[in-house]
Amino acid sequence: MDIGIDKINFFTSNLYVDMTELAIARNEDPDKYLIGIGQSKMAVIPPTQDIVTMGANAAESMLTDEDKEDIDLVIVGTESGIDNSKSAAAYIADLLGLRDDIRTFEIKQACYGATAALQMAKAQVTLNPDSKALIIGADIAKYGLNTPGEVTQGGGAVAMLVSANPKLLSFEGGSTYLSRNIMDFWRPLGHSEALVDGKYSSNVYLDFFNNVYSNYKDKTGFTIDNFEALLFHLPYTKMGLKALREAQKDADAKVSAKLAHRFEDSRLYNRQVGNLYTGSLYLSLLSLLENNDDLKSGDRLGLFSYGSGAQGEFFAMLLRKDYRKYLMNTTNEFLQKRTCISVEEYEKIYLKSLHYENNSELDLDMDDAQFVLTGIKENQRQYKNRI
């Protein structure tokens, strides 16, 4: 029985800041951001959007009534939780109108959370082939204004429906994984902005990739020639390029060129959004599927997931027959319709989103999404479905 991703969709806010304008405002050469980091735009998440609303917005437009009836598991992978006790999945299931006899919970391990959720969904559907699982990777990356990490901020949500006999991709075999207790990136309780040792974190990312990728090849007997594309967690897109270059050391010129071309397809969306932590690997996957025109059914994709602190995993998925017919193909148009705001406007939104006041109402004028956060009442978040 094949199990995998039946549907996938993405959501972010309708606002972004241009990285050239941000570079000029920070007295930096724009090429440092555009080429050195590999980012051209950065999503700006207003106070009216959080992981709940973004997750619900990503899921709603891809789910049918039949899907909603079949879903019996909802997992949200995030490191941007809105409550120390209650899961974002419970809120999302309610906003989507899912039935009550389901499991909902939230999972955390930095940027690895959505992959952990995906693997749990695989196990759930293996045991219950008629069920479907909704997996959401949603985050808002914050490092602070005028900080070295500012250029790698962003946010959004990727929603995936996992089922038997999926239309898009099926899991192939097992995974290889690695876990170590290290301090490359962390966010203590009470901190709205992450703490990171940037150079160390980049080195650990590459070390983890080389470890799990090498172990996967040893375990399966595969070589670089067996993969039609390699996908990476992209905290910024240059990071994935560095990992790809590690893999290309084993490839001949033809294979190396193929992988490089498909990597460019896979980072188109991430370049325009920035870091969405748990969702970034799967936004890259969506970017590849929607922007590449030479992959075919049966092709093997290698996926590297990494979460600081740290956890890494490498696994493979196979493209299903006629998978292109089932893609929504709405992301490019969605990203192009966003509104570019000034650096000054971005800074005001950023500072306002750091603190939510109790018994307050939020201004919805700049947010055109279906699901929005309207305010806080008696310490309870107030959500609205505009449709």
UniProtKB/TrEMBL annotation:
Its EC number is 2.3.3.10. The keyword rRNA-binding does not apply. The active site is at 79 (proton donor/acceptor), 111 (acyl-thioester intermediate), 233 (proton donor/acceptor). Residues 180-244, 260-350 form the Hydroxymethylglutaryl-coenzyme A synthase C-terminal domain. It is an enzyme of class 2 (transferase). This is Hydroxymethylglutaryl-CoA synthase. It comes from Ligilactobacillus salivarius (strain UCC118). SUPFAM superfamilies: Thiolase-like. Residues 2-164 form the Hydroxymethylglutaryl-coenzyme A synthase N-terminal domain.
